[in-house]
Design a protein that fits this description.
- The structure holds two protein chains of two kinds.
- By secondary structure, chain A is mainly α.
- Chain A contains 13 helices and no strands.
- In chain A, helix 11 crosses helix 12.
- The longest helix of chain A is centred in the middle third of the chain and has 35 residues.
- The termini of chain A are close together.
- Chain B is of the alpha/beta class.
- In chain B, the strands form two sheets. Chain B has an eight-stranded mixed beta sheet, sandwiched between helices. In chain B, strands 2-1-4-5 form a four-stranded antiparallel beta sheet, with helices on one face.
- In chain B, helix 11 crosses helix 13.
- The longest helix of chain B is centred in the middle third of the chain and has 18 residues.
- Classes of the chains: A mainly alpha, B alpha/beta.
- At the A-B interface, helix 8, helix 9 and helix 13 of A face helix 2 and helix 4 of B.
- The structure holds iron/sulfur cluster.
- Iron/sulfur cluster binds next to loops of chain B.
Chain lengths: 308, 333
């Protein structure tokens, strides 16, 4: 187990290096720079700013400097937010996304999971077709439609919840964006769980369990749940990484100070360090989630555990 | 008088069909069976002849798409159409089944101890510890060494023969009265087959559990069964004491089946002589005898379906030809 984790951590280093390099190169290839603007700066000022951020050095030097800082966990200063480091920006924004993304995933798992299981035990009946039709709807209607709709109903009409803004630690501010973000994931999860459960319930060992006279609930929960969770886990890993680093749409609609917004404005303003930093963070998160997925596989399936 | 003797299991006119694109698929047609206490009844036939369907029907596990008709009486109690809760209470408790492929009958995600124990915990309301204790006893009964340690293993950590012995132990956990064996040795290699058969024989000697043993392997059946039913295309075509059937098969199919046994007294190329042709499509069964397309003795009367009837003593055959066994055997050569 420890050896497995160590091996995975080591193999993550070259991957992250590639991600950082690609982000760095691609950003510097895009035309324009962080300090170009309509307003023409006095050459001396322009020069001193560039010197401060080492933009006057040759690119390979900037690159090596960036990697050196990265190795120490320092993502560099932001070009756009004066006197603020990228680390600080992420530390500010990430908790918002983690709170909303985590809550959304929890809702999606509980709701989608039970809907999927229920549908799988009643294939073809209305308790299967109705939720699956709704799930199709949940997948096809985009967030920028559902989120404003939720605001319209629950914030403006019913006035139950705030329409947006962020107050740290307030569940009322957390609820609406989480639910909006949870909707498509609920739909995905319900569909994944349904088809996985149908497959699991058709396995010969389920028939053998039936032949033992076990009650249906025991058969579903003890015998069919683990194989059902396998495809769900592989979906959840990358999905979780995506959700935790912020949904730009949700942040925009609800006016939340997450890192998704930093990423977009950073890209528009050529804030090299900010964009690269968030990209590397996202990469690291994906790698971490994949390790987590593999650990879950091992926990669920003894045959995988033996191989690890 | 035969009615007075209440069979342990009495099956009459049992039919199972599934809806199919070309009309119903008749997996089982009008099968009659009687299983007495402590008896072992063998059922032989090629794959697809309805042997497994018969066992699943007895447990009520044919699935919701299946149409099951006829009568299945357990100690006089009708099971066809019985409440699902009643069937679930009998399954695994009074009637237990061993499946053909142990690797797919065991749940790969659960320790075998848990899988052995769960039936007894549910039916006999044993505590977890008591059930695991019983599981260890049964592993010993099926001749698995160091049983207590094996309980913690997962199915993939056992060999094929060991797994099948585990499923046998699993079926015996609640001391059932009827044991259904669905080709328990087919998926195993030959030496392991012999071991598993020996385990089954000693269990029957120890517990006296009545057994319905389904196989395509006459040799395996002969080690356990006293009576034999031969099935072809979902029907019983011959029934009788196994020795008599072996010595003097009266149905051309049985005769051909026995002829296809590996014969050690013949030179190698002649040892295996399979019956030419294929079993019929269960969705398009002929109106007459289903074996007619492959039968060397087919004659005009065979266009009408032969009923199972007594020929000599307890020996029943469904065939229009009245020839003695020796002449039927000659027809094959
Ligand atoms: S009934 Fe006719 S076709 Fe069928 S097995 Fe007997 S002889 Fe052959």
């Amino acid at each position: 187990m420890l050896r497995f984790l160590l091996r995975r951590a080591l193999s993550a280093v070259p991957t992250l290096l590639v991600i950082a390099t690609l982000a760095f190169v691609l950003l510097h290839l895009t035309p324009g720079g962080p300090f170009d603007s309509e307003r023409v700066l006095v050459p001396q000022i322009q020069h001193s700013i560039e010197a401060r951020f080492h933009l006057d050095e040759p690119l390979w030097r900037q690159y090596l400097r960036y990697l050196g800082d990265l190795a120490h966990g320092d993502l560099g200063p932001s070009f756009q937010y004066r006197n603020t480091s990228v680390n600080e920006l992420i530390a500010q924004g990430l908790p918002v996304d983690v709170a909303i993304g985590g809550t959304a995933m929890l809702i999606a798992l509980l709701l989608g999971g039970s809907i999927g299981l229920l549908a799988a035990t009643r294939v073809g009946g209305w308790r299967d077709r109705l939720p699956m039709g709704l799930a199709m709807l949940g997948i096809s209607v985009p967030l920028f439609v559902t989120a404003p709709l939720l605001i319209l109903v629950f914030a403006i009409r019913l006035q139950w919840l705030p329409a947006g803004d962020w107050v740290s630690g307030s569940w009322r501010h957390l609820l609406l964006p989480s639910v909006a973000l949870a909707l498509p994931y609920t739909a995905y999860i319900a569909r994944i769980v349904r088809s996985a459960a149908i497959e699991a319930l058709a396995s010969p060992f389920i028939r053998a369990a039936r032949a033992k006279g076990l009650p249906s609930l025991t058969i579903v929960l003890r015998h069919a749940l683990r194989p059902t969770l396998m495809p769900l886990v592989s979906f959840l890993g990358p999905a979780l990484a995506g959700v935790l680093t912020g949904s730009i749409v949700i942040e925009q609609v609800f006016g939340l100070p997450g890192i998704g917004r930093f990423f977009v404005t950073g890209a528009l303003n050529r804030d090299y360090t900010l964009v690269t930093g968030i990209t590397v963070l996202y990469g690291a998160l994906i790698i971490a989630m994949n390790v987590l997925v593999d650990l879950c596989y091992g926990w669920l399936d003894p045959r995988v555990r033996a191989r690890q | 008088m035969t009615e007075a003797r209440a069979s342990l299991l009495r099956v009459r006119a049992l039919s199972v069909s599934y809806p199919g694109p070309q009309g119903p698929l008749r997996a089982l047609s009008d099968v009659d069976l009687d299983l007495d206490e402590h008896e072992c009844l063998g059922v032989i036939g090629e794959s697809g002849c309805g042997k497994t369907q018969l066992l699943l029907a007895l447990l009520g596990l044919c699935g919701s798409a299946a149409r099951v008709t006829g009568s299945i009486r357990y100690r006089g109690e009708e099971l066809l159409g019985a409440a699902p809760a009643r069937l679930a209470a009998l399954r695994g408790r009074r009637i237990a089944m061993v499946f053909q492929e142990p690797q797919s009958a065991l749940n790969p995600y659960l320790r075998i101890g848990e899988q052995l124990a769960e039936g007894a915990r549910h039916h006999l309301k044993l505590t977890r510890r008591a059930a695991l204790g019983r599981a260890a006893e049964l592993l010993e009964l099926v001749q698995i060494s160091a049983p207590a340690a094996r309980l913690r293993l997962y199915p993939h950590e056992l060999s094929g023969g060991m797994r099948q012995r585990v499923t046998i132990a699993m079926a015996l956990m609640c001391e059932p009265e009827i044991l259904l064996l669905d080709e328990p040795t087919t998926a195993l290699d030959v030496t392991i087959q012999a071991q598993v058969l020996e385990v089954l024989r000693s269990i029957r000697a120890r517990t006296g559990v009545a057994t319905l043993f389904v196989s395509h392997d006459f040799g395996a059946l002969a080690t356990l069964a006293s009576r034999l039913t031969v099935m072809y295309a979902g029907r019983a075509v011959e029934q009788g004491a196994i020795g008599e059937l072996y010595a003097a098969p009266l149905h051309p199919y049985t005769s051909g089946l026995l002829r296809s046994l590996p014969r050690l007294d013949l030179p190698v190329p002649l040892r295996l002589a399979a019956i030419p042709g294929q079993p019929p499509d269960l969705a398009q069964l002929p109106a007459g005898c289903a074996f007619a397309p492959r039968c060397p003795l087919v004659h005009p009367a065979c266009a009408e379906r032969p009923a199972l009837r007594m020929r000599q003593g307890d020996h029943q055959v469904a065939c229009h030809c009245e020839l003695p066994a020796a002449r039927i055997g000659e027809a094959w050569s």
